[in-house]
Amino acid sequence: MEQLENTAASRRRWIALGIVCLGQLMMVLDATIVNVALPAIQKDLAFSQASLTWVVNAYLIAFGSFLLLAGRLGDLIGRKRVFLGGLALFTVASVACGLATDQAVLITARFVQGMGGAVATSVILAIIVTEFAEARERAKAISFYTFVAVAGGSIGLLAGGVLTQAISWHWIFFINVPVGIAALLLGSAFIKENEGIGLRQGVDWLGSVLVTAATMIGVYAIVTSTDFGWLSSHTLGFGAVAIALLAIFFAWEARIENPILPLRVLRLRGLMGSSAVRAFLVTGMFTSFFLGALYLEHVLGYGAVDTGLAFLPMTLIVGALSLGITARLVARFGAKAVLLVGLSLTTVGLLLLARAGVGASYFPDLVFAFTLTGLGAGMAFLPLLTIAMADVPPRDAGLASGIVNVSVQISAALGLAVLGTVATDHTRSLTAQGHSVAGALTGGYHLAFLIAAACVAVGALIAMVVLPSPSRAPAAAPAPAAEGEVRPSST
User: Fold this and answer.
1) Which of 324, 331, 390, 484 is paired with 143 by a 20 to 30 Å CA distance?
2) Residues whose CB is less than 8 angstroms from the CB of residue 358 and which lie 6 or more positions away in sequence, other chains included
3) Buried (b) or exposed (e) across 359-396, using 16+ Cβ within 10 A?
């Protein structure tokens, strides 16, 4: 009887993992699938080039702003409840996006969609690490999550091209509806609710407003910097407001008994150190992913579907490593060692992209670069996640999950803004010097790829110096035995 109960519990956990990863895939796909459809959206709804950016920016601002608050709410009232609520909001907003017939409706719906995505995504990692307490199972579960999180972007480019060309751009949003409904129904049945800390001591509403406003204003300053300039009064002004609000937020959190962000979490070396490394990795890798797509389309003349197919080697390699290869490497050599190898391979892959010229062939030039980048990503993200969550108490798992996601979203937005601006400015400079359009574009992308490689190299340096040694941060540390207890890890 006990064995049957254990088997049933194990089956339920893996089904729950599939459900939350289905939700994660929907969010990741949405972040990239829209980019392919932007020209069709612009033509159909008569967007100007400037206003078209808000189809993307509205989502990014909302997504980045609500991650910390939603993650902490998961700790307080229950992560299942928060996840399902976010899914429902995202699904309803997807319907509104697909039905939109004017600019204002689409942009507003995209903002709400970003909010729903943030709410659902913020607690996914926390659900995984609390569902899978045993080290080996947790490593496998995080491997699967890593594959979905990393590979979904490439699938989004391909799916966006197919749906837009075969039907219409409206269907890139409608496709979310059956997936969202299925995830809601299955999640209600199979995801186990955690016992939240509760609202008995009250909710830190002031802290919630401060951190959400600071993040929203900061992301807004970043994503609009390409329009106004980094040294403009607009960018510097909003950036200063965001920093001031953060300073007030931290001062307030240090004074109250039940803060939305307990400052003890910031003293977790594995969580904060891995977040810094992840920020540099994402800045380099995800930015090169988008700029690489532009390079394929604008320089080499690839279509939307061909561009998605071009990234398949990267996706397939990440998937292969996520089947357990990286977990086994981490178990044998330690999370930190595998992470450093992954960061090194990613750096080399980006350097190879920086050498791809106007007439580069896919074989062997680009496929080799994408292969190395995929190997690096597949070896880096799993160790980063396991190091991040290894010493987090169960009561703070939702908040830690939110911090992990914030490090991804903020660095991705900042990286796209900075390296996109660098590429554009260098392209203009080369054009003024008499270079051809293709040559100038390639030169701009090359400079961006070089900076991206430097960012990942800086992340490797931080990992060597800051991250805990393997004896303190194993591949998949078991969850603490009791709430609030941080159990020493072992290799």
Assistant:
1) 484
2) 299, 436, 438, 439, 442
3) ebebeebbebbbbbbbbbbbbbbbbbbbbbbbbbbbbb
Distances (CA, A) of 118 to 27, 82, 115, 293: 9, 10, 5, 25
In contact, 261 and 206? CB cutoff 8 Å: no
Report yes or no: 179 and 22 within 8 Å, Cβ to Cβ. yes
On whether the CB atoms of residues 142 and 401 are closer than 8 A, the answer is no
* Token reading at 323: 């089947």
SS3 141: helix
User: Per-residue pLDDT tens for 118-159?
Assistant: 999 989 988 998 888 887 788 788 888 877 876 676 677 667
High-pLDDT (> 90) share of the chain, %: 40
d(CA 358, CA 338): 34
Distance CA 308, CA 265 (A): 39
Q: Which two tokens stand for residue 176?
A: 């979310």
Specify the higher pLDDT residue, 240 or 401.
240
Q: What is the DSSP string of 269-319?
A: HHHHHHHHHHHHHHHHHHHHHHHHHHHHHHTS---HHHHHHHTHHHHHHHH
For the cut 80, the answer to whether the pLDDT of residue 488 exceeds it is no
Supply the angle between the helices 335-353 and 269-298 in degrees, to the nearest 10: 20
Cα→Cα distances 293→40, 343, 377, 402, Å: 17, 21, 17, 29
3-state secondary structure of 66: coil
In this prediction the pTM is: 0.81
Closest CA to 366 of 378, 352, 382, 377: 352
Distance from the first to the final alpha carbon of the chain: 33
Distance, CA of 305 to CA of 482 (rounded, Å): 50
Segment (H or E) for 118? helix 103-121
